[in-house]
Amino acid sequence: MKSWAYKLYIQYILPITKKPFIYISTLFAIVGGYYTLCEIEQNAFKTDFLIGCFRKNITYFIIGFIVITICVLKEKSEKSAYIGSRDTIISLKLANLLSIKHSAIVIPTNTTFDTIMDDEFISVKSIQGQFQKKYYGYNFLELNNSIKSSLDQSYANSFIVLQNRTKTNKKRYDIGTVAKVTQRGQHFYFLAVADVSPTGKPENVTMQNMTKALVGLWDFLSKEGHNEPITIPVIGTGRGGLRDGTLEDVVHESVFSFITKTQDEFVSKKMTVCIYPQSLSDANVTWEDLCDYLQWQCKFNNESIKKAQNSSVYGKGIN
Predict the structure, then answer these.
(1) pLDDT, tens digit, for every residue of 229-254?
(2) Contact at 8 Å (CB) between 81 and 299?
(3) pLDDT in tens, 251-279
(4) Residue 269: inside a domain
(5) What SS3 string covers 266-304?
(6) One domain for residues 60 and 96
(7) Do residues 141 and 218 both lie within one domain?
(8) Positive or negative, the Cα torsion across 20, 91, 254, 230?
(9) What is the three-class DSSP state of 200?
(10) Which letter does DSSP use for residue 238 in this model?
(11) What is the residue-wise DSSP string for 39-55?
(12) Domain annotation covers residue 11
């Protein structure tokens, strides 16, 4: 409920405080437009039905004009921009990740690709937990088989065996490893973003690893993707417990790393960073700041190329 309230605040209330004179001028323009219709009616048809309705219901008309003004000037919950002169689009979207259709979805997970939800090992409040409950209930045999099949195909020998695991998976893969799962005709990419302790506590959740995870994702999609839109959450924040970065940092890195990758290889025609409204309300950044960064990066992506030349983080290739 709070997320919807914050989303409505961003779309309808906040723009009024930012652009009051635009709203006032638009309101007067709408009123003027109605009076123009009244004059047309009087001159063309010699009747005064419209002006009569206004005089009899002036309060309702004023409320209606205000509502129309707010709806016309509302802030969009999705901001998109093309990368320079390319046809590739990057978007920021306020939404629940699992409500998005017609796009592949990235699910952050741990490097052992555990799915067990007993004793909150995978929290039901996490993106992975919500996904598993929505599509599989509490029987994860099919999900585990799909993950194992994908890992065996693309990362057959890219893991170490942990000796301190008895009830959970023992194979630990590198951060940035991806397992593809298809459910109800939609592709979901499980992305390893952090290690996990034997009790389910995320470990090594750092900005360096978030960058490594993103680069690994783009590498995988460039080779094994389906040339479809891809939507990612703000990885590492929320239940992930990112220790040295913020929501703003991860959004920036998601945009920057995608632009960097598209300089060399095709990943997707559209990449969307999905931000849960409540997460944004709790963060020390505004929707406008994030949108401004997106516009700047897409317009001046040559700066990204220069920055990429100094980058020392690379994704792991697919076997």
Answers:
(1) 999 999 988 777 788 889 999 999 99
(2) yes
(3) 999 999 999 999 889 999 999 999 998 88
(4) yes
(5) CCCCEEEEEECHHHHHHCCCCHHHHHHHHHHHHHCCHHH
(6) no
(7) yes
(8) positive
(9) coil
(10) G
(11) HHHHHHHS--HHHHHHH
(12) no
Residue 6 falls inside a structural domain: no
Q: What one-letter code names the amino acid at 213?
A: A
Does any domain span residue 4?
no
Residue 252 amino acid letter: H
Q: Read off the pLDDT of residues 205-234 as tens digits, 9 standing for 90 and up.
A: 999 999 999 999 999 999 999 989 999 999
Token pair of 236 as six digits: 């590492």
Sign of the dihedral defined by the CA atoms of residues 60, 65, 66, 71, in that order: positive
Partner residues linked to 161 by β-bridges: 171
Are residues 68 and 123 located together in one domain of the fold? no
Contact 107, 187 (CB under 8 A): no
Does position 1 have pLDDT exceeding 90, yes or no? no
Same domain? For 151 and 40 the reply is: no
The answer to whether the Cα torsion of 302, 305, 310, 311 is positive or negative is positive
Distance CA(82)–CA(69), nearest Å, equals: 29
What phi, psi does 78 have (nearest 5°)?
Answer: -135, 130
Do residues 156 and 192 touch, judged by C-beta distance below 8 A? no
Based on the domain organization, do 93 and 60 belong to the same domain? Answer: no
Range of the domain at 41: 20-72
Enter the tokens of residue 184. Answer: 């109800």
How much helix, strand and coil, in percent to the nearest 5, is found in the chain?
Answer: 50, 15, 35
| Beta bridge partner(s), residue 87 | none
* Statement to judge: residues 106 and 175 lie in one domain: yes
